[in-house]
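ZP: hey, is the copper (II) ion complex queued? I don't see it on the tracker
AM: it wasn't, my bad. submitting now with these inputs:
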Amino acid sequence: MIIFSIDHKVIGKQYIGLALFSVVLGTLLSLIMRFHLVYPDAKVRLFQAMWPDGAPGGQMTPELYLSLMTMHGTIMVFFVLTTAPQSGFGNYFLPLQIGAHDMAFPVLNMLSFWTTALSLLTLLAAFFVEGGAPLSGWTAYPPLSGLGRITGPGEGLGQDLWILSIALFCVASLMAAINFIATIIELRAPGMGYFDMPLTCWGWFVTALISLFAFAVLLAGGILLLLDRTAGTSFFIPGGLIVNDQVQSRSGGSPILFQHLFWFFGHPEVYIAILPGMGLISTVLSVFSGKKVFGYKAMAIALVSIGGLGFVVWGHHMFISGMSPYSSIAFSVLTLAVGVPSAVKTFNWLATLWGGRLRFTAAMHYALGFVSLFITGGITGLVLGQPGLDVYFHDTYFVVAHFHLIMGVAAIFAIFAAFHYWFPLMYGRFLNERLGKVHFFLTFLGVYAVFVPLHFAGFVGNPRRYPDFKEYEFLKSVMPLHIGVTHAAYFLGAVQLIFLFNYFWSQRHGAIAPANPWNAATREWRND
Amino acid sequence: MNALKNPPGVKTTGMWLFVLSDLLTFATLLVIYTALRIANPDWPRPFTLSPAIVYATIMTVVLLASSLTMVWAVAAMAEDDRKNTVKWLLATIAGGIAFIALHLTEWRHLVLEDKITASTGLFGAVFFGVTGLHMLHVACGAVYLSILTAGVARGKFSAEDIETGGLYWHFVDLVWMFIFPLVYLMAVKP
Ligand code: HEM
Ligand SMILES: [Cu+2]
């Protein structure tokens, strides 16, 4: 039974496969979006063939653009960044690193993977139903997402499928979280205390704890939103709402309430994406510096405090929602406080390198790239955490640049590092080092070329989630910048083929790896 | 899957973790209820002491009694007394089913007599949302305990399995102990 396997290594690889499929799809969607942003009037036959209603005569409608954006964000956040670092690599290596025979609940593990797969299929089905995919972004704010067909073509069945998919994803993630936590609490090798675990395990541990609470709340939000759409309740629908000249019959609910729920999940979610990467990068930096991680205990405690603080800062996504200025200040102070453990991590990474005998392997390159992106993306976070500035920057491309650098690309660099580092254990061969380094440099260049200019678009006040900039006089000046970004994005997308080639080619033809090729000290490299 | 077995206690840990996250899901609903209620000073309070509250009290007693029989089932299994374990488990399931039956009768009354449904306003939405999710938990619990009962009767399952089931059942009971005052008692006609 290889398909419904309950072996943690097989399940780990299944998750990684699912994430790879998703990232290819998500990237293609983003390239189509970038194309449309700079050629909004282009008539493309391919679009018409793929979306006859969304692109009549090949001309993309604003609704189609928004649906592509929604699917891009949802696929990337949930099915790439939430699955690969935690459920993918975590499943494979957590039991090996703590000396457990498998995860605590192997059948539950299998169920959580297949629920995730079902969730992905449900999401993709939204492309094919009447009206197409939903328009409300990965944040799915009501009332747009709560009223049904009247608010747009994708807001019919497409939005229902989206909510169903996310609810399934919540259930799958809760199952996985229970499994990870129980495994770490109960199945550590005899004599291994919590502070004897590698930092990778700390990353997975804290991430699982965050998932356990965050997805429980999102699940409740999803259920209520679905009730609003299907059972006629109005938890999130205010009274007297007029949509398309029609007064909506429902009343009494609060759309802001959904924003609170969503971001109570949503902010911790960004840590779910990055914490496993932080753990892994600590290990990779230490192995290739030939030194122990500097300040191990501080690193573990920093992970826990980032995870904990993550639950009390959600308001920084809602500074313009009309919240009391006192709440804004509280959320702002707490948000900036996250800078402290983050700085602890950054300086300890640098101190780990300091005085070490550095080996510049491909994995080491990605790890250093991660640190770089973590700093560039983190600095803008400190800007956005201040209500005075965020009121201006909110919903502009400045935010898009911020979260792509730190959440999108940094986490993806950690995934690349993980592939290069652990490939010998997973396939008995090396990923090609030279191709890896070439891919690293081109990707590093590409991501900065795409995302640094977008900060400047944000300065001008360029709003996000707009399908056609030339409708607005004040955005004329940023068009050349967007043209540059789009070309950089094509370049970045093309460069990823190097990695895909390396990944599949090396599985069969890579150099054979000896046992423990990197001279690492953690348990997974010992063959006992 | 292989010869290596989990040490004792892993299943209970897993169930505790589930309970923790499920608690948060219910807490979210109750927080939403609180927020909506504060925002709507004219929140309806349709329940009369009799029959509504009397009825809900009976439901509460039935559910509490089923927790007691669950305690006895766990105790019997700890002494490897499978016959009595099956007996008390069956009693617990019966309690759960009785609770659901009473609950559905009450729902029916609300919908048909009082004309309150999930779409008639925020009160109905909260009431049916919260009690519906709870009832779903009771129903799942009844199925879960039935599987345990069938297994115990055929010599399968350990004391830890029954304890884990008990944990779930008591949790579902505990949630009701929040729902009863917040959703019922606080909606009594002034
Ligand atoms: C080739 C690289 C990428 C490009 C060119 C790209 C481009 C874009 C564009 C154009 C938008 C829409 C902005 C708007 O209209 O408001 C967007 C949104 C988004 N992207 Fe990317 N993206 C890339 C990679 C990623 C990755 C790796 C992630 C992983 C998380 C990601 C996550 C998101 C999210 C969460 C949104 C917001 C969606 C929303 O607000 O509804 N992107 N991206
Ligand atoms: Cu945030």
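AM: back. The mean pLDDT of chain B is 93.
ZP: great, adding it to the tracker
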